[in-house]
TrEMBL record:
Name the record gives this protein: Phosphoglycerate mutase
Cited SUPFAM superfamilies: Phosphoglycerate mutase-like
One Gene Ontology term of the molecular function aspect: phosphatase activity
Top-rank taxon, per record: Bacteria
Origin species: Acetobacter oeni
Length: 232
């Protein structure tokens, strides 16, 4: 006969196993709240921008105000906040905080930045196929193994991001961490958590302003949610 969990944990009993799937996330867990930055401006979307420091779309900042407010309500109040060196993550984080979360310090974490596309950055999308050595990924401009000249492959990104997550988890054990990052880096985080290949991780949809939650339990990773859209 199966046991049905009510989500109630008796006092003094450690939460584990299926109890982790209770409606409310347990406190005291090393948890990453990964948010993809907001939509970038129209000219940038017409090209491969990678680690270029392109601005956000001003119209979307206004039109998506309700999504920022939903994120401000959804995120844990006592979290550490991390961004990447690119201003689109800083602007996104500040907009969430201004939408009701409250001002918090922003720690720059370079190892969680987007894939560096090297010499291909700034290239119109239509010009990329002729430069590829490998067939492109169905849901990413290039395959996980393709390394742009002067840039990095998604294999490298997964290694970089995975090491950063392990380090931050160790440095901030039992804490909530909000990380405003990038689509490629968040897919790399999923590859690390699930121990899957970069090409497999690129099948995940990670939309702008979406939330992905990962937990680290003594080195074991758990995926709570992927591509959760605020307010929807």
């Amino acid at each position: 006969m199966g046991v049905v969990s009510s989500g109630f944990i008796p006092e003094g009993q450690q939460n584990h196993g299926n109890f982790l799937d209770a409606p409310k996330l347990e406190a005291g867990i090393t948890r990453f709240w990964l948010i993809r930055h907001a939509l970038v401006e129209q000219n940038a979307r017409a090209m491969l921008y990678g680690t270029m420091d392109v601005p956000l779309c001003p119209e979307s900042l206004i039109a998506q105000q309700s999504m920022y407010e939903a994120l401000a309500r959804r995120l844990p109040s006592e979290a550490l906040w991390f961004i990447t060196p690119l201003r689109r993550t800083r602007r996104t984080a500040e907009t969430i905080q201004n939408a009701g979360y409250g001002a918090r310090g922003l720690i720059v974490e370079s190892d969680l930045v987007e894939q560096d596309l090297g010499n291909w950055q700034g290239l119109p999308h239509g010009e990329l196929p002729g430069k590829l050595k490998l067939p492109p990924h169905q849901f990413w401009p290039l395959s996980g193994s393709e390394c742009p000249p002067g840039g990095e492959s998604m294999v490298t990104v997964c290694t970089r991001v995975g090491a950063a997550l392990d380090r931050l988890a160790e440095e901030n054990a039992s804490r909530d961490m909000v990380v405003v990052s990038h689509g490629g880096a968040i897919r790399a985080a999923l590859a690390h958590a699930l121990r899957i290949s970069p090409d497999t991780a690129l099948h995940f949809s990670v939309q702008n302003l979406s939330l992905t939650i990962l937990e680290c339990h003594d080195g074991a990773w758990r995926v709570v949610t992927v591509n959760e859209l605020p307010g929807i």
